[in-house]
């Protein structure tokens, strides 16, 4: 059964991105991989299924392992295809309103923090697979935070500041990264105190995604799958949950001070 159109579009966009990174025309890339310009164009637009030979050559010339890994993820169980769809929605958004209780969102993670999360969260992966995924995640995060959109408003549990994924040094680096983004006005963070008796965040993490050219949607992730919520009624409920979380969270300035206190403690710890 051939891959669905979503898979082909996502793979094609990555081929196009990597080709531009290498400063190659479609004609030049076609010569390298033994394909015509029109076929490369069709692949990039998601209009053609690349053969195993062409995929291998594309990965050799511009992917350096990334394209083969992406193809495997997109055509595997479907979980990673879902992740790439969410990544696209997130990066093209006008604004994000997110709540997290255990870790910082993937688009804010440093490479070392991401590596620790992947390594211990997926112990079946090889060291090379862990490093590859961490590098990809860090590149996506760098692209996200270097831009001016989307506007990001994040509410986190205070315990996120205390966790030591990988090591204290890795956690300090992650907190410094978040604090720097806050001070640059790229991100607004509010913290829900760990001892809050009226915590409305027991429904788990979620992300409200606002776009200029479409309705708001919500992304909800569990350990085994993700779900996009499009119902206006249910999206409005998540909006209410986010407002409730903001209502019991401390303000952005106090949250920044808490970040700095944790950073200082880790420097001397």
Automatic annotation (TrEMBL):
Please name the InterPro entries in this protein's record.
Answer: Cro/C1-type_HTH (IPR001387), DUF5753 (IPR043917), Lambda_DNA-bd_dom_sf (IPR010982)
Coiled coil location: none
| Listed SMART domains | HTH_XRE
Domain HTH cro/C1-type, first and last residues per copy: 15-54
Q: Name one GO molecular function term.
A: DNA binding
Q: Would you tell me the protein name for this molecule?
A: Helix-turn-helix protein
The opening ranks of the lineage are:
Bacteria, Bacillati, Actinomycetota, Actinomycetes, Streptosporangiales
């Amino acid at each position: 059964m051939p891959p669905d159109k979503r898979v082909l579009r996502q793979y094609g966009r990555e081929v196009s991105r990597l080709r531009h990174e290498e400063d190659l025309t479609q004609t030049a890339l076609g010569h390298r991989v033994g394909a015509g310009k029109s076929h490369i164009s069709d692949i990039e637009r998601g209009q053609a299924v690349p053969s195993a030979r062409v995929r291998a050559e594309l990965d050799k010339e511009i992917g350096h392992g990334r394209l083969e890994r992406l193809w495997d993820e997109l055509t595997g169980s479907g979980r990673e295809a879902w992740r790439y769809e969410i990544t696209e929605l997130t990066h093209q958004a006008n604004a994000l309103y997110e709540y997290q209780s255990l870790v910082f969102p993937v688009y804010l993670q440093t490479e070392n923090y991401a590596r620790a999360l992947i390594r211990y969260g997926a112990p079946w992966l090889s060291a090379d697979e862990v490093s590859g995924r961490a590098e990809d995640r860090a590149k996506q995060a760098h692209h996200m935070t270097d831009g001016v959109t989307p506007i990001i408003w994040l509410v986190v549990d205070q315990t996120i500041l205390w966790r030591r994924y990988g090591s204290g040094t890795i956690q300090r680096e992650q907190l410094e990264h978040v604090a720097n983004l806050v001070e640059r006005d790229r991100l607004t963070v509010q913290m829900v105190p760990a001892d809050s008796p009226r915590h409305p965040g027991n429904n788990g993490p979620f992300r409200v995604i606002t776009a200029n050219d479409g309705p708001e949607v919500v992304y909800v992730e569990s350990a085994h799958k993700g779900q996009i919520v499009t119902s206006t009624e249910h999206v409005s409920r998540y909006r209410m949950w986010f407002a409730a979380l903001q209502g019991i969270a401390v303000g952005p300035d106090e949250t920044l001070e808490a970040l700095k206190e944790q950073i200082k403690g880790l420097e001397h710890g």
